[in-house]
């Protein structure tokens, strides 16, 4: 029986938001006010699409974007944690569910030689167009009122679990590691033996704490982390049981 580790990416694996990090490539490392203020809640992917057009129009090429993205720092302890998971793949299946995009995540993981740690990456598909501009699309469509229109992480997780079950893979426990408001929906899918690991001081921890105060706690256990070393310590305990 394996354990399934589910990771968010921004502010979880890396210590920044990869989508806003790319702005370092923009002229003077900032966006024009009109573009910056054009974001509408729930429509982040379209907003990023406009940023990529702006970068392209200003002559920012793929190699410069890649160089910039691979300087993004990993969260404290994350390099050790991913090394530990990579050394124990017989115990762990490991996936990323992220609202970033496939190009950024691929660049960052490959540069640090961590791509093989993850069995699958579920994120918004991206590619460079014939004009050399980066384009990004919504990951899927869904009917969840709680999530941004391009991605319901609960739907992704449920479909992955169902697909694995069809292939005879049943997990002893799911460990969900994240930080953001859009990580709450998949955490509500977790069962009694599963574990949600929200990052200390971030939105997911605050939302889970509020649910507990409202006497409407999630079914799974909740363990807060501040360094990925905390996660690694827990996984070591889990595998020794």
TrEMBL record:
Signal peptide region: none
For this UniProt record, the keywords arranged alphabetically read as follows: Hydrolase, Magnesium, Metal-binding
Q: Which residues form the active site?
A: 8 (nucleophile), 10 (proton donor)
The GO terms this record gives for MF are: metal ion binding; phosphatase activity
Annotated residues for binding of substrate: 19, 99
Instruction: Tell me if Magnesium is a UniProt keyword of this record.
Output: yes
Q: Per its Swiss-Prot or TrEMBL entry, what cofactor is needed?
A: Mg(2+)
Matching entries from Gene3D superfamilies are given as:
HAD superfamily/HAD-like (3.40.50.1000)
Residues annotated as binding Mg(2+): 8, 10, 179
Per the similarity annotation, which family is this?
A: Belongs to the HAD-like hydrolase superfamily. PHOSPHO family.
- What is this protein called in UniProt? PHOP2 phosphatase
What organism does the UniProt record list as the source? Tricholaema leucomelas
């Amino acid at each position: 029986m394996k354990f399934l580790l589910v990771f968010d990416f921004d502010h979880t694996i890396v210590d920044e938001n990869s989508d806003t990090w790319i702005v370092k490539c923009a002229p003077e490392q900032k966006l024009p006010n009109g573009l910056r203020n054009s974001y509408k809640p729930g429509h982040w992917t379209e907003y990023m699409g406009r940023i990529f057009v702006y970068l392209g129009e200003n002559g920012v090429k793929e190699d410069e974007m890649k160089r910039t993205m691979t300087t993004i720092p990993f969260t404290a302890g994350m390099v050790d944690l991913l090394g530990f998971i990579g050394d124990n793949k017989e115990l762990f299946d490991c996936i990323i569910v992220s609202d970033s995009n496939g190009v950024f995540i691929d660049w960052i993981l490959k540069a640090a030689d961590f791509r093989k740690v993850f069995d699958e990456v579920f994120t918004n598909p991206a590619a460079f167009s014939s004009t050399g501009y980066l384009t990004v699309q919504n990951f899927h469509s869904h009917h969840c009122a709680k999530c941004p229109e391009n991605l319901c992480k609960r739907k992704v997780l449920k479909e992955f679990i169902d697909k694995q079950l069809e292939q005879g893979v049943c997990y002893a426990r799911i460990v969900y590691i994240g930080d953001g408001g859009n990580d709450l929906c998949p955490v509500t899918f977790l069962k009694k033996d599963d574990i949600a690991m929200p990052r200390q001081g971030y939105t997911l921890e605050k939302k889970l704490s509020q649910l507990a105060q409202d006497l409407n706690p999630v079914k799974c256990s909740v363990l807060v982390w501040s360094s990925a070393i905390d996660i690694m310590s827990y996984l070591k305990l889990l595998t020794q049981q």
